[in-house]
Amino acid sequence: MASLSQGLALGIAALVAVGGSAPDARGAPSGVHVGALVATAPMDWTEPLSLVRTDTERRVFLSSGQHVASFTSDGDIIARWDVPDDLRPSTAVVLDVSPAGELFAAEAGGATVHRYAADGRPIGSWSGTGGAGALGRVTGIAYDPRGSVVVSDAEYRGGPIAQKRFTNEGTYLGPVPGLTQQTTIGPSGRRWTAASASVTGYLPSGRQFQVLGDDCTPGGGERVPCATGIGTFGGAPPEDLSAGPGDGLLAVGPVDRVQLFGPAGRVAFACDRLLPGSRVVTADFDGSRHIVVGSERHVHRAAFTRDAARRCRRPPLAIAGLRLGADRILRYRLSTRATVQVRLWKVENGVTTGMATRGAPGQRGRNQLRIRRCDARGCLERGRWHVSLRATDRRSNRADTPALLSVRF
Fold it and tell me: Do 76 and 341 contact (CB within 8 A), yes or no?
């Protein structure tokens, strides 16, 4: 993940604006223009690309199967190498890159994390043997730009499934709240984790504050059918997640869609079929004015723009002016008519211990609702509850607000 470049017009201010309350956040990008080819998978790589990542020097890192390659910002290859495999037969690699260009990788399902320089030179490795830091089956790696590595372990020896934090050298620092699938971490430590058909946001404290997308039933059925519009993931986890400048979030998915979310989970834009003839499977920030998007063989650089961009759309649905008064009346505005749900989260010691939902008005323009402790389904426990809103319009677009407001019963 590349960090911020100073003085660029579409940097942190624009991405933070996307998380604010204005229906059309001024300065926020409306899409991207795809530009030059910056990297191509070596000819002898028989499997498609699975991941692209960048660093502050705008070097580009690719992975495919057990293979990894690094390129200069101009597309010249620096090095290529294979990550050692613990399993037979070998499968794929999970990895992430630090802002300085150090790469942390493990075989998917393996038990050893390997650390490399940008030129492929091995720096060290660890498996966290013994105690709470032991690794059993690594399913994901996320680098925290503040200076540590979060490893998702789906088969912790002698204990529950967990995410674990290590120093760059492999010293175990402790558990991390969250799930065990793909995770990405922004510059502030705000973390997004994907599982099922949703992406869950965590504050640096570890408190869950938002869920984008939702569990649903692909194709309909007895449960709620999957929303497929902007702000959703179409009933499956995103193929790739990447956090970047201003804690913005790039998500690839549903199929062949790239979406940019602000730090509060608000969608800035969604682009479909950015690479005609090829399907986008991975993406990352590349400084604060560009992203890189990868198909199964090639990686292109794309520039943020405020102008109309081919194949990109701004979301038609937005929630604005969200306020919660001492009278427990929740006030908000909608850009278009929608079905609205109030979501209530009870958090204790950083862990979500309860969740409830309430129906809410969904008229275009101003709306309000008094939040009551009891309804026809029963009463909430006493204490502090965090409040968020979810809206879904008739075209299956969705808008979610973070659970940063709270009410006490």
Answer: no
Q: Which of 281, 305, 90, 94 is nearest to 181 (CA)?
A: 94
The pLDDT assigned to 17 comes to: 52
Neighbours of 45 (CB within 10 A): 18
Q: What are phi and psi of 257, to 5 degrees?
A: -120, 135
Shared domain for 95 and 178, answered yes or no, is yes
In this predicted model, what pLDDT tens digit does every residue of 275-310 receive, in sequence order?
A: 989 999 999 999 889 999 999 999 999 999 999 999
| Burial profile 87-101: b = 16 or more Cβ within 10 angstroms, e = fewer | eeebebbbbbbbbeb
Q: Work out the end-to-end distance of the chain between its first and last CA atoms, rounded to an integer number of angstroms.
A: 42
Separation of CA 325 from chain center: 31
CATH number of the domain encompassing residue 95: 2.130.10.10
Sequence-distant (≥ 6) Cβ neighbours of residue 171 within 8 angstroms: none
Classify burial at 214, counting beta carbons within 10 Å of its beta carbon; exposed 0-12, middle 13-18, buried 19 or more.
Answer: buried
Structure tokens at 164: 């674990």
What confidence score (pLDDT) does residue 24 get?
Answer: 43
304 and 331 co-located in one domain: no
What is the C-alpha separation between 181 and 98, in angstroms, rounded?
A: 19
